[in-house]
Amino acid sequence: QVQLVESGGGLVQAGGSLRLSCAFSGRTFSNYAMGWFRQAPGKERDFVAAISERGSSTYYTDSVKGRFTVSRDNAKNTVYLQMNNLKPEDTAVYYCGRRLGGSLYLRSSYDYWGQGTQVTVSS
Fold this sequence. Notes:
Layout: E1 3-7, E2 10-13, E3 18-25, E4 34-39, E5 45-51, E6 58-60, E7 68-73, E8 78-83, E9 92-99, E10 110-113, E11 117-122
Parallel strand pairs: 2-11
Antiparallel strand pairs: 1-3, 3-8, 4-5, 4-9, 5-6, 7-8, 9-10, 9-11
């Protein structure tokens, strides 16, 4: 059975940094691309970043390019999201997901999700 557990969220001032982790339990973590999405109150769950199966390719939404970095450690079955220079508009619940197939940018491409971790950026 696949389980994803996010951690590392919290309250931070604008300009600060956080590192999110997503621990994957189950077999064959390295066979799947992984993604990070976020959902602000009253809004849809939107794509933030994704990483290919071996970590050789990464993808970002425009608003986080140059500030966020996605990485993975296949030996530890974990994917990370390093978030620097955080802004109040980054405030959301952040979710990691396992991409089953299809576009990395679409929610419908992911079949398993974690429970989410809250990130709050104060101005």
